């Protein structure tokens, strides 16, 4: 049994990633922590509960986490996932926030990993504020993890939020810096450029859309992002006539399927914290100048057919 703890800012792709994990029989999610990112942390908690209700897994504990970056600076995620993070799709029967646990996210993350030492993989698909706070509260936390799977960062200075920064890292550069420099467990990173190179077929016809979006819930929350992708600005970046991207699902797939990752680049990485253009950019040390003994596995090639199957299973 693969045991996961998931840290999200629950936009549409976070929802898809969670649903993907539920579709794999030997995967167990021990808890889900929420952090501000795609939307406010209150909305993130609501969105996670909506996903759990649809998947009939409301027994999984949900924990409220950081409401702002470590230095308190806010970087907006834009409106790609809608103002509420789930496409602004109304849900009058959504579970209430009283279902969120009283225990804080960081405390719960540390406790659950301590209860399962060496067994839990942490999947982080959001700004890394909660994860950075965990290592600051418990410096031994990283070595108790089986692995850390991150969606974030970039390898080619190609930004999607700032000139050179991917959103999850740019939203809290100090947190990303702490995580990449203080987590010495196996670390796998699905970067922005990698997800752009790993598109899935984009289908517009109603019959195929029903096939891709078998659940009414997914059709509702994905509608806003789908329409945004056909705008002139985002079509060039995301669609390109070839397909769409579910960014967070790539990191989740690496955590739940051992045969999904074909090739990684094993490099030391850090995060730029200064500069007018480069703050929040992930730095890949190709020349070994940093002399770091711990290196991350940057996803380079994956089995897209296997990924497509995982995505399809999540929607059935």
Gyration radius, rounded? 18 Å
Strand content: 15-25%
Helical content band: 25-40%
Mean pLDDT: 86
How many domains? The number is 1
Number of helices: 12
Quickly name the level 1 CATH class: Alpha Beta
Given helix and strand content, the structural type is alpha/beta
Using the alpha-carbon principal axes, give the shape.
globular
CATH superfamily: Ribonucleoside hydrolase-like
Task: Summarize the biggest pleated sheet.
Answer: 9 strands, mixed
What's the count of strands?
9
Question: What strand line-up does the widest sheet have?
Answer: 3-2-1-4-5-6-9-7-8
By CATH, the architecture is named: Alpha-Beta Complex
Protein name: Probable uridine nucleosidase 1
GO molecular function, one term: hydrolase activity, hydrolyzing N-glycosyl compounds
Organism: Cyprinus carpio (Common carp)
InterPro entries: Inosine/uridine_hydrolase_dom, IUN_hydrolase
Keyword list:
alpha/beta, 316 residues, 36% helix, 17% strand, 9 strands, 12 helices, Inosine-uridine Nucleoside N-ribohydrolase, Chain A
Describe this structure in words.
Pfam families: IU_nuc_hydro (PF01156). The chain has one domain: Inosine-uridine Nucleoside N-ribohydrolase, Chain A. With about 325 residues, it is an alpha/beta fold. A 9-stranded mixed beta sheet has the order 3-2-1-4-5-6-9-7-8, with helices on both faces. The protein contains 12 helices and 9 strands.
């Amino acid at each position: 049994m693969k045991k996961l703890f998931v840290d999200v800012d629950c936009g549409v792709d976070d929802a898809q990633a969670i649903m993907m994990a539920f579709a794999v029989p030997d995967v167990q999610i021990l808890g889900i922590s929420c952090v501000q990112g795609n939307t406010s942390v209150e909305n993130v908690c609501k969105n996670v509960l909506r996903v759990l209700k649809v998947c009939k897994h409301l027994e999984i504990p949900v924990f409220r986490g950081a409401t702002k970056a470590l230095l308190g600076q806010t970087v907006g995620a834009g409106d790609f996932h809608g103002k509420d993070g789930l496409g602004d799709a109304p849900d009058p029967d959504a579970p209430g926030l009283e279902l969120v646990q009283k225990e804080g996210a960081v405390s719960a993350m540390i406790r659950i990993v301590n209860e399962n030492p060496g067994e839990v993989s942490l999947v982080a698909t959001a700004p890394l504020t909660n994860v950075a706070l965990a290592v600051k509260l418990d410096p031994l936390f990283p070595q108790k993890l089986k692995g850390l799977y991150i969606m974030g960062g970039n390898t080619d200075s190609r930004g999607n939020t700032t000139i050179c920064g991917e959103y999850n890292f740019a939203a809290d550069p100090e947190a990303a810096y702490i995580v990449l420099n203080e987590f010495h467990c196996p670390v796998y990173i699905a970067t922005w450029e990698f997800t752009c190179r790993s598109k899935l077929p984009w289908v517009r016809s109603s019959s195929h859309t029903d096939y891709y979006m078998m659940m009414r819930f997914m059709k509702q929350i994905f509608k806003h992002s789908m329409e945004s992708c056909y705008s002139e600005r985002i079509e060039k970046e995301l669609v390109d006539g070839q397909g769409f991207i579910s960014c967070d699902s790539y990191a989740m797939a690496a955590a739940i399927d051992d045969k999904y990752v074909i090739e990684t680049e094993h490099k030391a990485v850090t995060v730029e914290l200064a500069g007018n253009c480069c703050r929040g950019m992930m730095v890949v040390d190709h020349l070994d100048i940093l002399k770091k003994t711990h290196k991350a596995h940057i996803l380079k090639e994956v089995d897209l057919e296997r990924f497509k199957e995982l995505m399809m299973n999540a929607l059935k």
